[in-house]
Design goal:
Helices cover 30% and strands 22% of the residues. It is of the alpha+beta class and 217 residues long. The protein folds into two domains: 153 residues, 3-Layer(aba) Sandwich (Glutaredoxin), CATH 3.40.30.10; 43 residues, Antioxidant, Horf6, Chain A, domain2 (Antioxidant, Horf6, Chain A, domain 2). The chain has a five-stranded mixed β-sheet. The longest helix has 17 residues. The chain starts with a helix and ends with a strand. Bound molecules: benzoic acid.
Length: 217
């Protein structure tokens, strides 16, 4: 891990590959990636404690906490701030905004996790993490990554939609179209042979053409 910190050619997480391990100090004590085995995990970074956009995001993450729990998803925050700063900030959010922050936050002062996950964007900052989201599945595989600039707070509805899509894809072996929501038709994966293409048109799917078929689940 130490070598990564000075290596600009660091290997970054990639979709479909194992998420980088960590064992980190958080506001809920030491936490390692392995602790989330069997659950989905949203690991997200924010630039800094006591900043306005981040504060609105933390309130928004707390608001979807129960919806995430229903989906077997845990939340884990991260910034390059001390655990004391994190504690003071979450206490301040509770006092001023009446919102309890129920999830842990990594105090990544040595930038180990930020570096391993590529959360530092030198074009934005070398000392503050950008707004990154990693969705890690119950087997520890990176299933989605989202990177937002410091200026733009994230959209919680999209995170829930993304989780719903990933879990539906896993259950039904399908894909989901643009703007898909639970209850909408899903995409039947494209056929790999001419024979399968012809067959699919007879299967009662809602087909625009052989390569674009939807079905209800
Ligand atoms: C914010 O959370 O308000 C913020 C943090 C870093 C840069 C810009 C905005």
């Amino acid at each position: 891990m130490e070598n990564l910190l000075n290596n600009p050619m660091q290997a970054l997480p990639r979709l479909g590959e194992k998420a980088p391990e960590f064992n980190s100090l958080t506001t809920h004590g030491m936490i390692k990636l392995e602790d989330y085995k069997g659950s989905w995990l949203i690991l997200f970074s924010h630039p800094a404690d006591f900043t306005p956009v981040c504060t609105t995001e933390f309130v928004a993450f707390a608001e979807i906490f129960d919806e995430l729990k229903k989906r077997n998803v845990e939340l884990l925050g991260l910034s390059i701030d001390s655990v004391f700063s994190h504690i003071a900030w979450v206490r301040n959010i509770e006092e001023k905004l009446n919102v309890k922050i129920p999830f842990p936050i990594i105090a990544d002062l040595n930038k180990e996790v930020a570096t391993a996950y590529g959360m530092l964007m030198p074009g934005e900052s070398n000392t503050e993490t950008s707004r990154c989201v990693f969705v890690i599945d119950p087997e520890g595989i990176v299933r989605a990554m989202i990177y937002y600039p410091m200026s733009t707070g994230r959209n919680m509805s999209e995170l829930l939609r993304l989780i719903d899509s990933l879990q539906t894809v896993d259950t039904y072996k399908i894909a989901t179209p643009a703007n898909w929501q639970i209850g909408d038709e899903v995409i039947v994966p494209p056929p790999k042979t001419q024979e399968l293409a012809e067959e699919r048109l007879k299967q009662g799917y809602n087909c625009i053409d052989w390569y674009l078929c939807k079905k209800k689940i």
